[in-house]
UniProtKB/TrEMBL annotation, chain A:
Cellular compartments annotated: Cell membrane
Cellular component, GO annotation: plasma membrane
Membrane topology: Multi-pass membrane protein
InterPro entries in the cross-refs: Cyt-d_oxidase_su2
Residues in coiled coil: none
Family: Belongs to the cytochrome ubiquinol oxidase subunit 2 family.
Residue stretches spanning the membrane: 12-34, 55-74, 80-105, 117-144, 164-186, 198-220, 232-253, 260-279, 299-328
Protein name: Cytochrome bd-I ubiquinol oxidase subunit 2 apoprotein
Organism: Paenibacillus aquistagni
Entries under Pfam families matching the protein: Cyt_bd_oxida_II (PF02322)
Cleaved signal peptide residues: none
This protein's UniProt keywords: Cell membrane, Membrane, Transmembrane, Transmembrane helix
Amino acid sequence: MSYELLGMTVLWIFLFGYLIVASIDFGAGFFSYYSVLTGKRQLIHSVIERYLSPVWEVTNVFLVFFIIGLVGFFPDTAYYYGTALLIPGSLALILLAVRGSYYAFSTYGSRDSKVYMFLYGISGLLIPAALSTILAISEGGYIIEENGAIAFSFTALFGNLYPYSVIILALVSVLYISAMFLTYYAAKAEDKPALEIVRTYALSWALPTILASLLVFYAIQRHNEQHFMNMLNYAWMFVLSFVFFLIAVILVWKRTNYGFAFIAVMFQFGFAWFGYGRAHLPYLLYPYLTIYDNFTNPAMAQALVIAFIAGLCILIPSLYLLLKLFLFNASYVKGMKKQKKA
Amino acid sequence: MFAYDPVLFSRMLTGLTLIVHIVYATIGVGVPVMIALAEWIGIKRNDPYYLLMARRWARGFTVTVAVGVVTGTAIGLQLNLLWPNFMRVAGQAIALPLFMETFAFFIEAIFLGIYLYTWDRFKNRYLHFWLLIPVAAGSCASAFFITTVNAFMNAPQGFDLIDGKMENIDPIFAMFNPAMPTKVGHVLVTAYVTVSFCLGAIAALAMLRGRRHVYFKKCLRLTMVCALVFSLASTLIGDLSGKYLHAYQPEKLAAAEWHFETTDKAPLIIGGMLTDDHDVRFAIKIPFALSILAGGTPGTVVMGLDDVPQDHYPPLRTTHYLFDLMVFLGMYLLLVAVWYFIADIRNRKQGVPIHKILLMGVVLGAPFSVMAIESGWIFSEIGRQPWILWGVMRTAEGATTSPHVDTMLWLFAVLYLVLTITSARILIRMFKLNPVEEEIASLGLEGGPAS
């Protein structure tokens, strides 16, 4: 495998990691706020908080890691995307800032400020929308290079069906992934009332997820024919994705094996994500930038790969420890030990 | 007010983000070390007050970490959004430390999460303490890596520039550039000074308000001993930084000191005013001091600005005043720390109470130390204008050409204002609602060791 492909694969895996953990995080924030509105807060709040509190900071790092790595391996991405994405990028940043800090303010600082909960609940839904437009932009047609200057057209972006379809898919998926995870977590905590609520959320977001995926297929065919044809070449991945979707929904429907159901959800999105990514290659920005243009020099690529492997050697055991202590620790999950905040 | 210029607005927005981020980042680097120290002493001496100290600091730390994380994410992305042309060229050489920084950040984030939620989970108290080591190591390593990037911008090396592209890059050589040792040393040590004063000021303020619990005394003693050690170290490293500037960036040193003629026996200039004809008025001059700062002897020849082309001048007034302010504040902090150390010995041996003016001095040390950090950073950054990559790339060549930077500047200004005010309010509320005396009583710690 060439360094270019290796670099992109690694980054794509990290973005997938972000997709899963951030979805759980953003969705949980929204459900947490929604439960205040519907008066069911007492039922599900503790389950959500017990999961989110130790991991909220880690989520952010996945995203930063992806961006730094992308520019490290492919410096031209900074040139093309940096200039064009000033506004959407800055808006995403502001939302991330609001969400991150107000989550902490609400959890550690104030006692139940509804305003803070509203801020982090809503910003959690807007972030995937903002970030997914960047994915839409990578399909080309919105960034134009003329006479060595980069221009980005908002009217082109929002005068087109494709970005909307991606935004809808992102929103729906966030709620679906999050609800599926919370279902598993509530079941593990043996918290029946919470389980009933989040299970309903999970099932009600299942159908919209599939419909939104179909919408994206339809829109991408009209927007970037070549990418769509590439995706057809990897049709088996999307078929497998659908199979795992059915497995997940059926398991939750039958109220068994919630853990396996969530793994199926990960496979569902994994196959779709890597199928989409594989078909997107070699383009980073259609049609200007491929992974083979101005790749970082060999010495740096090698250093990055070494740093990456060394980093993983510390990261994986640490993440494992985190999961073991908070996710797979029965007494913590059930909240049986008297839990003292810091 | 002035015509739209993306370079100027990019500089302002980057500066604004960094000015806000630096406060929280400094706290983020220093506080874990102080928490570790308090917890370690607490376990070692079996003193519950130190353990409580660690716990209370950790609680407040979560709020500052949150703002530090989000402003850090902001600057990470803004590098690409505001300086795409710079990143396209230099991204090749600085990718490694940036990448390593995110790893360090990862480790810190993971173990901080574990640390905060496992206070009473382990029977062996050292196990919990050990969790803090990766947090402190991670935050210091982040500071290390990100400072090497900044050092590279001041002393770029480890590449050949061929047709505007960096070729033959040696990532390690680029990272370990001449500016790196003094920069990293100064950044780390001054962060510890700042945090010592910020935490010490909380205790001093309580004592000034007449609260007499022994907890505050212990808190003040611990933080001020740290402040003394780190202030001494930062003075030493500051001196080395002056020698570095003399050897590698004499333009910056000359601008900071309004030193126009290349001479030996150069005087150090404090305060004063600069006329448009480059005459220095009303300044205090310390003979030979600049030569001694630069090379260790009065005979050292210090390069003057006359040897520098005018279009390579950084803004002379800002640079000089900020440099003076940084040094003045640093000296103030050192003085207070020394005074406290003496007063504390007399307090122990002869029972002389700590003077109120000294307590006020410690309280003032908190904002002063933050101001020192800010003025030092702004001096260092403005002092290398007009270069973004010293001697290689001018700032104007690195900036974005986007027509919307001004709007983004206002948006971020509002965001930072709101975040700063809210985080300060929350911190104050958090500790006001839960004063230490009440927490001690509710935990049943009263009657523990008295000193």
